[in-house]
Amino acid sequence: MTSTYTASDLQGLPLFASLKPEQCSLLLDRHRESSHATDQVFVLEQDWGESLFLLCSGMAKVRTFTADGVEVVLSVLGPGEVLGEMAALDGAARAADVVALTPVTVLKLRGAPFASLLRQEVALALALARLEAARLRDLNQRFALQSSDGTTRLLAALAYLARRSSPADDPQASIPPLAQRELGLLAGLARETASRTLSKLRSRGIVVEENGRLRIVDLQPLVKRGLVAGDRGRGSR
In the CATH hierarchy, which fold is given to the domain comprising 7-135? Predict the structure, then answer.
């Protein structure tokens, strides 16, 4: 597929903001663009690969399975996020699947120029370290909530999805339409439990549905549960 993605577009992303235009052009050399439908797996666990990917549009999940075959969602990725960077660095097999949650457009970038720039540019290496630290922090926070009640877990999942779909990291951003199974997986709830809990949040006016997209309109329940900072709740209903 012909791509219109430019060095300026790449430089506009936080991870690559420190790079010069010619360095961004080097990363885009011989890149490939592809589109994938909802539920399509476009990166396979245990595959070998030296490329990394840039999610241009849509949302995707990074998932693996336990020994018992239970699906575990490790993270959700939104537009402008990089994935597959670890295999590009260490040459090991992919550690997880990446699955489209919505229709997505993806750029496949060569790993060798990326690894070379990491060795040369301290700012790029630090930006990558910050990215990995933020993802690990999100993962730790989500798994720390697995013993919480269903309402807390679903509110946390909704806020996380909103932040991933928003360039401003806004927990009140609208969430693209997703199957309730996906909400349940992310919250660690059965689909039926997620559905009942979501209905309760709607009836209380905490969550609304607008054109098929969910949005948290009242942050106070999240503030009370320590899911967002207190100053986020100001001005909420």
Answer: Jelly Rolls (2.60.120)
